[in-house]
Design goal:
The chain is mainly α. The protein has one domain.
Length: 57
């Protein structure tokens, strides 16, 4: 349960950080920001992929 709370807190912190980053952006800046995040996601850079050792168990 404690580990889950830690993960949830990290997600909350990330959301707050993103809210601060986009608070005073124009629509065009926000669109570019979202495009950048989408490109990171599609290239696999946004999330860390588990190693093969962990996935093969």
């Amino acid at each position: 349960m404690i580990k889950r709370k830690g993960v949830v807190q990290k997600m909350i912190d990330q959301r707050e950080k993103m809210n601060e980053e986009v608070a005073d952006m124009t629509k065009e800046e926000f669109s570019n920001y979202i495009d950048h995040i989408q490109n990171q996601y599609e290239s696999g850079k946004l999330f860390v992929k588990p190693s093969r050792e962990k996935t093969s168990r």
